[in-house]
Specification:
Layout (H helix, E strand, L loop, with lengths): L2 H29 L8 H12 L3 E2 H8 L3 H13 L3 E6 L2 E9 L1 H24 L2 H18 L14
Helix pairs in contact: 1-5, 3-4
């Protein structure tokens, strides 16, 4: 890689770090009203469960890149808050499946709506001509990271 290429990569990384501070701020603000209910880590679990219904604790742990015991403890806390349900698989009682409860689904919808509104306000302040370039760059970045697209649904923003 040339010196110029490295400088472009460094410039892009710096821009991403700055943008990530904005996104973390938006995420934290969107979750502020739910702070007494869930942490940001627990909310991430809820979002993963929304996109992966009827998932095992083992599969949830893999998706979150945590140990199964960490995932199980988080599920236990979310179960106590009535945000998820947990059921044994009738054909294999060692396998436990986790899903969002109605209360969990509502929390994800509320937080996601707040996050979508905040991001919409920011995007509208951007010059219109640069929005498409941003979409292309962020899509390429997400593809390189292996992150599935969020789509246009109110509930599929990710976390």
């Amino acid at each position: 890689m040339t010196g110029h290429g490295k400088s472009q990569v460094e410039e892009f990384v710096s821009a991403l770090l700055t943008a990530s501070r904005v996104l973390v701020g938006v995420s934290a603000a969107s979750l502020a009203e739910a702070e007494d209910t869930v942490t940001i880590t627990q909310f991430r679990v809820l979002v993963v469960l929304e996109g992966s219904p009827d998932v095992t604790v083992q599969a949830l742990a893999q998706r979150l890149a945590v140990t199964p015991s960490t995932a199980a403890r988080t599920v236990d806390r979310l179960l106590a808050a009535e945000l998820v349900t947990r059921e044994e698989n009738p054909s294999d009682r060692r396998e436990v499946r986790v899903n969002l409860s109605a209360k969990g689904r509502e929390l994800v919808a509320q937080v996601t709506a707040r996050r979508r509104a905040a991001l919409t306000r920011i995007v509208r302040r951007m010059p219109a001509a640069q929005r498409q370039d941003l979409v292309a760059a962020l899509s390429a970045f997400s593809d390189a990271a292996g992150e599935p697209p969020a789509g246009g649904s109110e509930h599929s923003l990710g976390w």
